[in-house]
Amino acid sequence: MHITKCNKENEIHLIFFHGIGDNYKSAYNYVQGLNGSNTNHAHKYPSAFQNYITYAAVSFLFLVASVSAPIAILLLISPITAGVVGLASLAALTCIFLSVMLIFIPFINRDQSLLKPSIEEINELMDKGVRPENIILFGHSFGGAVASAVLKHFADKNVKLGGVIFTSTFSSFHTAIGHFPIPQAKILSMLPSSILKKLLKALDLDFDLVNDIRKLRDEGKLNMPVIVINSKRDYLIPQPAQLAHAIENDVLPRGKLIKTVNSKSYEDDPHNGVLSSWELDENLTDLILNKIDKTMNR
């Protein structure tokens, strides 16, 4: 689909927030090929986020060390006393702590690093004459949390954007941690819920999409289309942690502006396969065409 623009005021802009493990170049190439438009943008995450695989690899090494280091201490130091056991335990706990913290480092300081690039880009587009209601946010996986936070930022300033699409996104970071299939998440999920929530809040990682959408709805600011696409077969963000599941189970009552879709594409990779699914293409095309119709009827 190719879109002809008459002027900046009528341009339709799409901003894509990719998930963990991708980089800006591949995200940019993907979003440029979505609908043949040159007004698609990829969110520019900080370098720590784009190098997340490196952080994850080092985190895994510390997790391995949490087992190997105590064993080495117990084998190398004799006799084994209470002090030696305490040292081995301290080594294990230190390695586990470092492993968990390395997983979270790229996400910290959301306002200064995670959100700022697209907030500045949207402000720049509006300064150039682009209508805010013609700017659509598209968040995939963890990128959905960032897109939701950007949406909330502008809604709090009474700026109405054009809509948001979530694919393979969780309902809240707190809920997702209990279902992520990685050891570090399993360790964190052992903490009492109240402590885990306080920890995430202290690290500025208390992303709660359901609560944000509910708050916007209650304040009368949810006046744009919200499309949520999840796959029930998603192994990375299983159904109990999915945003679509939360909405469908009346945690967040649906209205005429909120639409949930169950993607049935790509059984081998249901989490990322949605990015190439017909469900996404169909809903994205409908949303953009609706924007075009409205601008042409002004």
TrEMBL record:
GO terms for biological process: protein transport. InterPro entries: AB_hydrolase_fold, PGAP1-ab_dom-like. GO terms for molecular function: hydrolase activity, acting on ester bonds. It comes from the Eukaryota. It is an enzyme of class 3 (hydrolase). The keyword GTP-binding does not apply. The chain crosses the membrane at residues 52-77, 83-108. One of its GO terms (cellular component) is endoplasmic reticulum membrane. Its main location: endoplasmic reticulum. Its EC number is 3.1.-.-. Keywords: Endoplasmic reticulum, Hydrolase, Membrane, Protein transport, Transmembrane, Transmembrane helix, Transport. The keyword Endoplasmic reticulum applies. Residues 109-158 form the GPI inositol-deacylase PGAP1-like alpha/beta domain. It is found in: Endoplasmic reticulum membrane. Gene3D superfamilies: alpha/beta hydrolase. Involved in inositol deacylation of GPI-anchored proteins which plays important roles in the quality control and ER-associated degradation of GPI-anchored proteins. Belongs to the GPI inositol-deacylase family. This is GPI inositol-deacylase. It comes from Trichonephila clavata (Joro spider).
